[in-house]
Amino acid sequence: MPASGRDIFLSKSLYMRGLQCHNSLYLHKHRPELRSEPAPELLALWKSGTEVGVYAHQLFPGGVEIPFEGLPKDEQLLRTRQEIHRGTKIIYEATFSHDNVFVKADILCRSPEGFDLYEVKSATDVKEHNWDDVAIQYYVLAGCGVPVHRAFLVHINSAYVRKGEIAPRELFAIQNVTDVVRGKQDAIPEELATLRRMLSGKEPDIDIGPHCNDPHECDFIAHCWRHIPEHSIFTLRGRGIDKWDLYRRGILELADVPLVSLNAAQRMQVEYFLRKDDHARPEKIREFLGGLWHPICFLDFETFRSAIPLFEGTRPYQQVPFLYSLHRRDAEGAPLRHFEFLARPGADPRKELAEKLVGEIPDGACVLVYNMAFEKGVLKDLAECLPKHRERLYAVIDGLVDLMEPFRRREVYHWKMAGSYSLKSVLPVLVPDMTYEGLAIRDGEMASEAYFTMGDIGDAEELRKLRKALLEYCRQDTLGLVRLLEKMGSLGN
Prior knowledge:
Helix content: 40-55%
Structural class: alpha/beta
Number of strands: 14
CATH superfamily of the largest domain: Ribonuclease H-like superfamily/Ribonuclease H
Strand content: 15-25%
CATH topology of the largest domain: Nucleotidyltransferase, domain 5
């Protein structure tokens, strides 16, 4: 059979990749060296998905798992057939191959009418592409002669609050998708044939588009987007214009964008970029600075999120603080003092963190943060779970002031900020020596991953270095706020 036939192997993940973009599948098969390394947040998502799967098995306890690691595919297929022939009622990671498509079903439950198929997702809701995920499994199982009675998607229930041990029946929501999955069956053979014809030919001539990030960010973006200049239409912030319409009209450079089609913020971004311009409005800056008082604290939290709530009273994906940095100046001209906290891995950090924090923030202090909604949310969660400290934590909330606001309102703006008012965009422009380059940990995702890694490190020196890196990163954030405020003082004169 020629290479364009059914001998071209596909898996569920390859099929899903091909549905998103033929070129992505082609490059994955033929030019894998062009793929970018997965981002830390994606690695964390994969790890979370594995953990979620383990808990989902508890929805249907007593099943037999078909191993994946270290077991050849043929052996996985054989063991699955053996369990089915034995009459096993529940199989985890059941493995099937039909039409040279390989799939593993998260949970397969025998019922009087056949088998019920359960696909487990770590997200808190069901997306349309999840239906295709289940549909290709249904196709393969049916082709193997496995009678699928019903098909379900299992996902995280975002309203769940942990009370004692994890309760899987409350942690998960289950959605019946049998009808929509069956409705997709007729189209699958032709879709597979189309993908295989594509893979047996030359690289598809597919331009970039919204599909590059929908439903997932493609790992070949760096390759496919190499013709896009650094300062392109895709750097325009906010909504109000269809960037893909501009692209299809051959407009790539900011200089070519029709200004009349932009909203006010985007127009400023383009005009300032073209003129290499900047501005500061001293009267507005003085007004902002006049609303600050002493003692003044500069606060930043680092948090982690987990699909499976790790501690009593937490929800799926709740932002749980494990690290903070606090710079404090008690009076005008007084020395700057620094405080910090980094939790021990594995233990609920909230009580110890909150007690230390309220002891270091004086009553009535001005608490300067960047992007206040985040810190406010963390503090509110702490207040609600720690009644003893609730009053003090709400007093801290009352003292919050958002240093982001003058930049969000563009009372201070520089063309190098590229329309962004994030701290990572503003700080290097106004305080060039405050850089994150050279730090072992450079963003919040890396910090969260590092915290989880701490629990697996047995070497004391390695653990010391990781703790030091985490503290240095968070300290850089609050020291950056100090320096940014000093810079605003000079701009307000």
